[in-house]
Design brief:
Blueprint: H1 5-12, H2 44-54, H3 57-64, H4 82-85
């Protein structure tokens, strides 16, 4: 499940147009994903590059596209530099 799941299922015709997602305003962790690098990883430097990419504005924007994944970004647009806020 993701917050965009209903929107994706409406678009595919699996749910009626009146369907919607619900989320609490406070008190929930939401839909979170974690990336971890084992302490004994053979390529920890490369794994850190991948983890940093996953948090990049470009990757987060692509992930937010309903045609790709549909999860909202974990980034706060107000904390991004001006050139990246527009995305």
């Amino acid at each position: 499940f993701s917050p965009a799941h209903a929107q994706q299922k409406i678009a595919s015709g699996d749910l009626p147009a009146s369907s919607y997602s619900f989320g609490f305003r406070e008190g929930m962790i939401g839909n979170v994903h974690f990336v971890t690098i084992p302490a004994n990883a053979n390529a920890s430097a490369a794994a850190k590059v991948v983890a940093n990419f996953l948090l990049s504005p470009d990757a987060q924007l692509r992930k937010a596209d309903p045609a790709v994944w549909g999860d909202p970004s974990v980034l706060d647009p107000q904390k991004l530099p001006d050139g990246q806020r527009e995305s």
